[in-house]
Specification:
heterodimer, A: alpha+beta, twelve-stranded mixed sheet, three-stranded antiparallel sheet, 20 helices, 47% helix, elongated, B: alpha+beta, two-stranded parallel ribbon, 57% helix
C-alpha cells in the first residue's frame, strides 16, 4: 500500500524511489555544471556525465532496493535514539526533584501495595484452588440444601453427618465423597503438651484429591477401618520444625491419643485443608473419632468432597446423589423428622465461591473495594503533584518548545516519567506487601492459612501492569497541560509565574476528587466504627465480660463419657471454692457461639405459636448457668441441681413445633437435651472449638465466673 | 592530451576508496566521486553509479550514515559520514591493503633483482 506523499511526510516515512531520484538529480546537476565549467557544451557535458556514471537505469533500481532497507534501518535507529533521549530526560527530571519524586513513589507504593495485598488475599480465597490437588475443576464440595420454613429460603450446608457421607459413596457419577473434619489435637503430656491443628480424614481423602506425599505414604482405606492401627500424616512444615526434616520421621510416633499414632507420611509443602485452614497432622477418621462415627446421623461434623467422573453429567449426578441421600434418610423422612425435599448440591471447591460463603468473603470484597479507593486517591494525589510541577516548569517547557522539541516528545517524556515513577512505586509496593502482607491477611482473616506472598505466575505481571497504569494515569493531567498552549504564550504567562487558568481548574478538580474519595473512606470507616459500637452496646442479657471459658481437649480414645462427666462435675464443684471465682456451670456449647436447635413437642399440646424469629435454639446447661452468666431468672427457667433442663439461648427465646431442620447445629430429637444424653456426649474429640465444624452435641464445656 | 588507459578496479577496493573519501569530512555522493577522480587523476576506472551503490551498501552495514542536508550551492543533498564502526573499518582495511600491497611489491621487486 502506498500512501500519498503528504501523509508519508507527516508520518516521517521516506519514499526510497523519490529519495534516490533526488540524490541522482543532484549528482547530475553538479557533474554537468563542473563539466560545463571545463568548457564542454550542454549536450557534451550531459553525455560525459552519463558515461562516467554508467548504466543509470540499472543503478537506479539497485539503489532504490538498497535505500528501502536503509530507510527502514534509519527509522529504527532514530526511534531507539529518541526513546533513549526521552528516557534520559525523564530520569533526569525525576532525579532533579528528588523529594517530590520520593513523595510520589511512596504515595503510589501505598496505593499499589494495598492492592497487591488484596490481590493475594482474593487469589487465596477465590481464585487459586488449594495446592497439590489434581484436576481441581472436577472436584466439588458436597452440600445439602434444605428449605427453611422459618426463613422461607433454601439454604445449603456443607457440614454433613458421617452416615450421610457413607450413603453417597456408592454413587456411579462421582468418585468419593471423601470427608474431613478439622480440629485441634493435643500432643504430648504435661508441660510439653501442645495443640496442633489437625484434620481427621476418610481413607479415600488423599487418593481422591490426587495429592502426592513428600515422603512415605498417605492415609489409605485400610487405615480408616474399625480397629486399625492408628497412623498419622504430618505436614511438611511440622516435619521441618519438629523433626528437622529427617527421613527417619517415618515410623516415629505422635503422642496423640490412647495409643501412639505412627507417622507414615509427610504431606507436600503448604498443604492445607480444603477450606484453606492450616493442618499439621492428618489422622484417619475412625481411629481418631470413633469406629461408629460414620453410622451417626445426628452428628454434623464433616466437610465432604467428591470428584465428578469424566463421563458424568452434573445434573444427573445431582439426581443420583439426592436419591441416595434420601434413601439413607428414608426412615426419618417417613416419620417427618427429615425434610423430604432435601437436595444434594455439588458446589465449587473453594468455599468462598459459595453457596453459603462465609463472612470472610464479604470482608475480602470490602477490603478490595477499600484498597481500590486508596489507589484512586493515591493516583489523584500524584496527578496533582505532577501537574503542580508541570506548571512550575512551564517556563522550561516553553523554552524547549521554542527550541523546536516536538510536542509528542514532550508529552511522551512526561508520560514516561509517570510510568517510571509508577514502576518505582510498584517495586516499593511489592516490598511493602512482602513485609506486611501476610501479617495483614492473618489479622483480617485469622482462620485462613496464608501463604507467603509468592512471586508466582501472576502477582508480578499484575503489579507491573497496575504500576504502569497508575503512573500513566497520574501523568496524564501534566501531559495534557504540556500539550496545550503555545511556547510564546507560555513564556509570557511564565513571566508572571502564576499557573494558567486551565491548570488551576484541573488542579482544583483533582483536589476535589481526592477529597471526595477520602470522604467516602472516612464515612465508611465512621459507619464501621458506629456499627462496631452498636454491636458492643447490644444488651445480650448476660454478663460475658468476667466469664472464663474452659474448653478441655481430650485425647482421642483416652476418656469415657463418664470420665468427662466426672471431670466436669469436679470442676463445677471445686472451682467456686477459689476465692476469686463466683460460680461455675457446665454448658454444651460456648455461650453465644455454638448452639443446638431441635424440634420441641410438648405432650398434650400439638402446636406452640410460631415465633417471629423462628427456630428453637437450645443450650444444654447445668445448674448455676444462669447465676454464672448473671442472667436474670425467668420464673420458669429454673434449673435444679442434679437435673439438666433445656432453656432458650441466643436470640430466640420462644419455641415452636416444626419438623427437624437439617443442617448445622441440628439435632434430631428432644431427648438430645436429657441429662443422660448430655453425659453420653459423643467422642471427646468433638469438643474442640473448631468454628463451623458444626459439632452440635459436644462434650461438656465449662463456664465459670470470676 | 592523451588520456592513459584507466585501470580496472581490483575486487573489494571500492568500499575502501569510499570509506577513505569520507575519512576527513562528510560528503555527498558527487563529492565522493569527484574526490576519487581527483585523487587518482582519473587513472582508476570507477563507474560513479557503483560509488553510489557502495555508499548505500556501507550504510546498510552501519559503517556510514546518511542525512539530508544543504549542499554548497544551497541544494538539498544527501550527505554521508563515517560512523565509529566505519572509522574502525577504514583503519583495518587500510592496514590490510598496505600490507597486501607491500607484500606484492616485495615480490615484484625481488623478481627485478634476479633479472
Amino acid at each position: 500500500v502506498k500512501l500519498p506523499v503528504g501523509v508519508r511526510r507527516l508520518l516521517r516515512l521516506s519514499d526510497p524511489d523519490r529519495d534516490v531520484g533526488e540524490e541522482l538529480a543532484h549528482h547530475f546537476e553538479q557533474a554537468i555544471a563542473d563539466l560545463r565549467a571545463q568548457g564542454l557544451s550542454e549536450s557534451q557535458a550531459r553525455q560525459e556525465a552519463v558515461r562516467r556514471f554508467g548504466d543509470v537505469l540499472r543503478y537506479r533500481r539497485e539503489l532504490a532496493a538498497l535505500e528501502r532497507d536503509n530507510g527502514r534501518r534509519r527509522r529504527r535507529v532514530r526511534s531507539v535514539e529518541s526513546a533513549w533521549e526521552v528516557l534520559k530526560h525523564a530520569v533526569r527530571s525525576i532525579m532533579r526533584a528528588r523529594a517530590l519524586s520520593l513523595a510520589i513513589i511512596l504515595t503510589l507504593a501505598l496505593g499499589l501495595g494495598t492492592n497487591v495485598m488484596m490481590y493475594a488475599l482474593v487469589d487465596r480465597l477465590l481464585l487459586s484452588p488449594p495446592e497439590h490437588v489434581r484436576e481441581p475443576e472436577r472436584l466439588r464440595r458436597v452440600m445439602i440444601e434444605t428449605y427453611s420454613e422459618t426463613q422461607r429460603v433454601r439454604s445449603a450446608d456443607g457440614i454433613l453427618a458421617g452416615a450421610d457421607v457413607l450413603d453417597l459413596q456408592g454413587a456411579r457419577s462421582i468418585d468419593g465423597p471423601a470427608a474431613w473434619l478439622e480440629q485441634r489435637f493435643t500432643v504430648g503430656h504435661g508441660l510439653a503438651a501442645r495443640e496442633l491443628d489437625g484434620a481427621a480424614v476418610t481413607g479415600n481423602y488423599f487418593a481422591l484429591l490426587g495429592t502426592e506425599p513428600a515422603l512415605g505414604r498417605f492415609i489409605m482405606a485400610a487405615d480408616d477401618a474399625a480397629g486399625a492401627v492408628p497412623v498419622a500424616v504430618i505436614s511438611y512444615e511440622l516435619w521441618q520444625t519438629e523433626f528437622g526434616g529427617r527421613a527417619e520421621v517415618l515410623g516415629s510416633t505422635l503422642d496423640l491419643g490412647a495409643a501412639p499414632y505412627t507417622i507414615v507420611g509427610v504431606a507436600p509443602p503448604r498443604t492445607t485443608s480444603l477450606r484453606l485452614r492450616r493442618v499439621d497432622v492428618w489422622l484417619p477418621a475412625r481411629p481418631a473419632l470413633g469406629d461408629n462415627i460414620f453410622e451417626r446421623r445426628n452428628w454434623y461434623a464433616f466437610g465432604a468432597v467428591a470428584r465428578l467422573r469424566h463421563d458424568a453429567v452434573e445434573t444427573s449426578a445431582l439426581a443420583e446423589l439426592t436419591a441416595l441421600h434420601l434413601r439413607g434418610r428414608s426412615e426419618q423422612v417417613e416419620t417427618g423428622q427429615y425434610p423430604r425435599d432435601a437436595r444434594v448440591l455439588l458446589a465449587p471447591l473453594l468455599e468462598a465461591r459459595g453457596p453459603a460463603a462465609g463472612a470472610e468473603v464479604r470482608v475480602a470484597k470490602w477490603m478490595v473495594a477499600v484498597s481500590m479507593i486508596v489507589l484512586l486517591i493515591a493516583v489523584v494525589n500524584v496527578a496533582n503533584l505532577m501537574l503542580a510541577r508541570a506548571v512550575r516548569q512551564g517556563r522550561e517547557v516553553a523554552v524547549r518548545l521554542a527550541l523546536g522539541i516536538s510536542r509528542v516528545r514532550l508529552v511522551s517524556q512526561l508520560l514516561l516519567e509517570g510510568v517510571l515513577l509508577g514502576l518505582l512505586g510498584g517495586a516499593a509496593a511489592l516490598l511493602l506487601a512482602w513485609y506486611t502482607g501476610a501479617g495483614l491477611s492473618a489479622v483480617l482473616l485469622p482462620d485462613v492459612a496464608w501463604r507467603e506472598l509468592g512471586w508466582g505466575a501472576d502477582l508480578l505481571p499484575l503489579t507491573l501492569l497496575l504500576s504502569c497504569f497508575a503512573g500513566l494515569v497520574a501523568a496524564t493531567a501534566a501531559a495534557l497541560h504540556a500539550s496545550r498552549g503555545s511556547p510564546g504564550g507560555t513564556l509570557r504567562a511564565a513571566r508572571n509565574t502564576g499557573p494558567t487558568r486551565s491548570a488551576s481548574r484541573v488542579r482544583a478538580s483533582l483536589a476535589l476528587a481526592q477529597a471526595a474519595l477520602s470522604a467516602i473512606l472516612l464515612i465508611g470507616a465512621g459507619l464501621f466504627v458506629r456499627s462496631l459500637d452498636a454491636v458492643r452496646a447490644v444488651d445480650l442479657g448476660i454478663a460475658l465480660d468476667d466469664v472464663l471459658y474452659i474448653n478441655p481437649i481430650f485425647r482421642p480414645g483416652t476418656t469415657t463419657a463418664d470420665d468427662r462427666a466426672a471431670l466436669a462435675q469436679r470442676i463445677v464443684d471445686e472451682l467456686p471454692e477459689h476465692p476469686r471465682l463466683l460460680a461455675a456451670a457446665v454448658t454444651a456449647t460456648p455461650p453465644l457461639l455454638g448452639s443446638m436447635n431441635t424440634d420441641v413437642r410438648v405432650p398434650g399440646m400439638d402446636h406452640l405459636p410460631q415465633a417471629g424469629e423462628g427456630e428453637a435454639w437450645m443450650q444444654v446447661v447445668s445448674a448455676g448457668y444462669f447465676r454464672t452468666l448473671q442472667i436474670p431468672a425467668h420464673p420458669w427457667a429454673r434449673i435444679r441441681a442434679g437435673r439438666l433442663a433445656q432453656c432458650p439461648s441466643g436470640r430466640s427465646s420462644s419455641m415452636k413445633p416444626r419438623p427437624a431442620r437439617c443442617g448445622r447445629g441440628a439435632t434430631r430429637s428432644a431427648s438430645a437435651c436429657s441429662s443422660r444424653r448430655m453425659q453420653n456426649a459423643p467422642t471427646s474429640s468433638a469438643s474442640s472449638a473448631t468454628r463451623g465444624s458444626g459439632a452440635s452435641t459436644r462434650a461438656p464445656h465449662f463456664s465459670s465466673t470470676t | 592530451m592523451r588520456r592513459p588507459r584507466p585501470l580496472e578496479l581490483v575486487q573489494g577496493t571500492l568500499d575502501l576508496l569510499v570509506l577513505k573519501a569520507l575519512g576527513c569530512e562528510p560528503r555527498h555522493g558527487y563529492a565522493v566521486a569527484r574526490w576519487v577522480r581527483e585523487r587518482t587523476g582519473g587513472r582508476l576506472e570507477v563507474e560513479e553509479g557503483a560509488l553510489y551503490t557502495a555508499l548505500h551498501r556501507l550504510e546498510r552495514r552501519g559503517w556510514v550514515e546518511a542525512e539530508w542536508g544543504l549542499s554548497e550551492n544551497n541544494r538539498r543533498a544527501k550527505y554521508y559520514a563515517l560512523t565509529a564502526a566505519g572509522r574502525r573499518q577504514l583503519g583495518v582495511e587500510t592496514v590490510k591493503w598496505t600490507e597486501y600491497a607491500e607484500a606484492v611489491f616485495a615480490i615484484l621487486s625481488s623478481e627485478e633483482a634476479e633479472a
